[in-house]
Every structure is written in structure tokens, then in C-alpha cells.
Amino acid sequence: MVFGQGDFRTRTEDRPSPPPLAVGDRLALGPLRATVEQLLDHPRFVSLIFDGTPDHIWAGLAHHGRPIQYAHIETPLALWDVWTRIAGPPVAFEPPSASFALDWHVLATLRERGTEFATITHAAGISSTGDDDLDRLLPFDEPYHIPEATACAIRRAKTRGGRVIAIGTSVVRALESAARGDEGVEAGEGLARQRLGPSSRLRIVDAILSGTHEPGTSHYELLRAFLDDATLLRTSVELDAGAYRTHEFGDSVFIEHVRLHDDLKSDAHE
């Protein structure tokens, strides 16, 4: 979320540099108070410790914070605007927007056709910040929680030769971080730290429903783990030609994993 009540129409790229901060500095963010715990690898990137209980902090975020606002959305967004139809706790910096394509009717139809649906909780990260130096640090670490029921559902799918379809890039990162071999994931809490890209071998996820992303963003790099560059480039050209929208409230793509790494491994043994 973006704190403060400034003009939402000011592009991130045009905002002035933040004031210099030091460890121990105190910040007032609306009703919340926080202490700078650590300076990270960029002036805009620090670790904070908030005062108060978790309920107090969540309430402060909900009342004072604002969702990340993209330029193609002309009206200011409220918290409920970015709450997906099947959402749980509001723990993302921006909405896990791939699931905007799903509602309870769609899920009921999928179940009627034998598709099993399971959930995880994850803090979906941002794909770009408007700051080139900061973008090079993306993706940030993303906490996640995988319920035991979801881990069991993935094992069943793998055992019977089914496919695991991730709804969004953050789900891919969480499941691949929690992978234990090629047949399942470990239930519980974890932290997705890896940067998935063309050299990554996907062990769990077979396909992804995702928003569209521009080449060069961390989310686009993740899609390179699914498809070869030529196909993705052709897709990007078609999306641009058709004036499809990227980011939140944009359009969606469904991408199946082309197992390039397995094919290359087989060729090496022949």
C-alpha cells in the first residue's frame, strides 16, 4: 500500500527522493507509529517495526493506507476495490489480481467438471516500482502459508497425473519455494526468496493464469520459466497491438509450461 493522502495522480517516477533515514528513526504514518529497524539496498527500501498489536496495525493500514494505484485507472481506489472475489486476509501490497478472473460461479463450474480448487495465503509483491534501481532488486521476499489440505490436493494431482495450475505469479513462487521433489509441497509457513526465470526448473506448477506483464519486469521474468523467449515476445507484440492492459484490472493470459529443461536433459542423454 501507499501511505499518505497526496495526489494519487502523481506518477511514482515523478515523486521526489525520500528524506534520508537512519536506524532508530521514528515515523508517523497516519494513526501508526514505526521505527526504522534496518536500511536495505536502496533509499526507498527500509525495514520497519510498527508499534502496537497486530489488530491495531491491520486497522491502521485499512484506515490510512491506500492501494497501489496504476496510471490507467483514472479514479482513486479504495481497499474494497482491490479485494478479489475469493480473497482472504488483506496481506498484499497490491491485490493478487490474477484471481480477479475467478468468482464463486466459476469455481462451482470447475468443481462440476472435476477440478479441485485449493488456496494458499501469500503476500503478493509488486512487479515494478517506477524506480529503475529499485526494480533491479525485485522480486522482494514474499511470506506465504500453505494449508495441509492444499499440500494434500497437490500430492493427489501429481500422483494421478493431473496438472497444478497457479493463479498468479506469487502462487508460483510460493509453491516452487515449498516444493519437496517433483511430487508435492511442504505445508506451513515459508518465505519465497527465489527469482524465477528462464533458467529455473519448475517442479510443481504446470500452468499459470496471470495478468499481462511488460518485458523487463520481475513478473515477466517469471513467465520465462514457462515459455521460450520467442513465444513470449510474439505474445507481447500481440498484446500491444490489441491494446491489452497490464497490471491490476488489466487483461489475463493462460500459459502452459513447456518443459524445455526436461527436453534438453533428454537430448543430453541421447
Biggest β-sheet description: 3 strands, antiparallel
* Total number of distinct structural domains: 2
Give the overall shape.
globular
| Class from helix and strand fractions | alpha+beta
The CATH architecture of the largest domain can be named as: 3-Layer(aba) Sandwich
Order of helices and strands: EEEHHEHEHEHEEHHEH
Which key features would you list for this structure?
270 residues; alpha+beta; three-stranded antiparallel sheet; 8 helices; 27% helix; globular; disordered N terminus; disordered C terminus
Question: What's the topology here?
Answer:
Elements: E1 26-29, E2 32-42, E3 45-50, H1 54-64, H2 104-112, E4 121-122, H3 132-135, E5 142-146, H4 148-159, E6 165-167, H5 169-177, E7 188-192, E8 207-211, H6 218-223, H7 229-241, E9 252-256, H8 260-269
Parallel strand pairs: 6-8
Antiparallel strand pairs: 1-2, 2-3, 4-5, 5-7, 8-9
What does this structure look like?
- The protein has two domains: 1-66, no CATH class; 88-269, QueA-like, CATH 3.40.1780.10.
- The protein has eight helices and nine strands.
- The chain has helices at residues 54-64, 104-112, 132-135, 148-159, 169-177, 218-223, 229-241, 260-269, and strands at 26-29, 32-42, 45-50, 121-122, 142-146, 165-167, 188-192, 207-211, 252-256.
- It is globular, with a radius of gyration of 20 Å.
- It is an alpha+beta fold and 270 residues long.
- The strands form three sheets. A three-stranded antiparallel β-sheet has the order 1-2-3.
